[in-house]
Amino acid sequence: MFDLNEGALPNRPGVGYKPQHFAAVMADPGAVGWLEIHAENYMGDGGRPLAQLRALAERFPLSVHGVGLSIGGEAPLDEDHLARLKALCGWLRPASFSEHLAWSTHDGAFLNDLLPLPYTAATVARVADHIDRLQEVLGRRMLLENPSSYLAFAETEMGEIAFLRDVARRTGCGLLLDVNNVHVSAVNQRMEAEAYIDGFPLDLVGEIHLGGHHEDHAEGGARLLIDSHSAPVDGPVWTLYARTLARGGAKPTLIEWDDDVPAWPVLEAEAALAARALEGVA
Amino acid sequence: MSQATFVAALLDPALAVPEGLLDPEGQPAGRRFDVYRNNVAGGLTKALEAGFPAVRKLVGDQFFAAMAGVFLRAHPPQSRILMLYGSEFPAFLGAFQPVAHLGYLPDVARLEQAVRESYHAADHVAVPLAGLTPEALLERRLRLAPSARLVRSRWPVHAIWAANMAGGPAPVAGGQDVLVLRRGFDPEPHLLPFGGGDFVAALGQGQTLGAAIDAGGDGFDAGAVLGLLLGQEAIAEVME
Question: pLDDT (tens digit, 9 = 90+) per residue, A8-55?
């Protein structure tokens, strides 16, 4: 059904690519074996961003990570945006394409955030329809990422894992497991992160995300973790990651650091920590 | 709950958090909803800060952030491609009463938007003008690079930009026309001499080189501007 000639990401660490790291990563990628880009940052007509991307593509396996498709939106997917994604994946031929279980547009406005969804049968059907359409346009299988959440919907009727399993079963899509999101959501929703990892269908996982968060608090002083991607990966997230690898084996693992981006050696050192964890598993 | 209800509360902090959003105790979400409000406002404010550094310098960081908050609620992005978010910012500044005393601010924003557009514009291969007699050349039409942007102002917009971004001297009153050109990957705003704005505008309308030079008027130094275009590799096509 899908074009499987795109290859796959290696079971090594990758990092979210930042333009300021171009010279450093081309000179010596260290522990970094592949790079992930945000699709929407490479939808200009030319200039440095596309020139850098062409150079990176000759050297590294790439993952294209969409942040603007609004797969969970009530409206049909934007066909113009689908065409742009198809064009980008067409010339770049990335090893992987992934998007989020979230929505970000409404009535023509793009809100630039990953907004939450109620887990209902109706949402499953809508998300599955949208993924069917995306996979049809791209001619490939996508990976769907679990969100970080800060609140719950009263109308929710099933757990997040049951929701993701159902969508994957209907569409044939794979999953992207963001272990930091699991930790953030578990703290915020007062659930067991370990139980989430133990119940996750790791056989469907094509990529893992690790990233940093920061801590705030809600009314009454309850801990509220914010998925900021602006800090090193936290200790509990590394522990959950080790648990994931022990259960599911080695997976391509991304370090995400999108805000307050550090110098290259700091980012590479995070990737080296992931490399060490990956070396310890089959 | 519909996504319309969610969005309305997201963009208007004065609205109550929509019903049906809960914390782990089953209580209304409150500050948990504010995380999404903060993410939206914070992310779009950062996009505007990145796009309009000279405007930000002119009004100060705090004022800019507050003004960005007003703008992003009135004009949320209409595109999922945020690199050019803010095309309505110059017109917004022109109508935003608290900056009415800074008449030049919209044009500074226009110049910054032009620089950003230039950065992401299509690449081109520069063509030489050699091989044509001057007489023949005057009959040709020149197509400038897709990354070229003309910004015309009744304010000294280039000097204001340079004083804030590149350590230039204090601006002197008077209008300025600026041509943003990108040789390689980094766009640069170039101050055009007298008549240069009319000349470039005429080229953009598809007039011949000779007619464009006439449009520059008496005292227009065509050699200087052609030298700029050639030096910056800004001529993409010579057309019949």
Answer: 899 999 999 999 999 999 999 999 999 999 999 999 999 999 999 999
Do B36 and A107 lie within an 8 Å CB cutoff?
A: no
Q: ipTM of the predicted structure?
A: 0.94
Q: How far apart are CA A75 and CA A85, in angstroms?
A: 18
Q: Which CATH number fits domain A13-279: 3.60.40.10, 3.40.50.1820, 3.40.50.720, 3.20.20.150?
A: 3.20.20.150
**Chain A positions in Cβ-Cβ contact with residue B122 (cut-off 8 Å):** 45-46
* Contact (CB<8Å) A45/B120: yes
Q: Which of B120, B106, B129 is CA-nearest to residue B180?
A: B120
* B36/A150 CB distance under 8 A: yes
Contact assessment for residue A97 and residue A89, using Cβ atoms and an 8 Å cutoff = yes
Distance from the Cα of B132 to chain A's closest Cα (Å) equals 30
Can you give the pLDDT at residue A1?
A: 40
Provide the residue type at A279 as one letter. Answer: E
* DSSP state, residue A33: -
- To the nearest 10 degrees (0 to 180), the angle between helices A235-248 and A264-279 is 40
Residue A78: DSSP 8-state: -
pLDDT at site B178: 98
pLDDT at A4 over 60: no
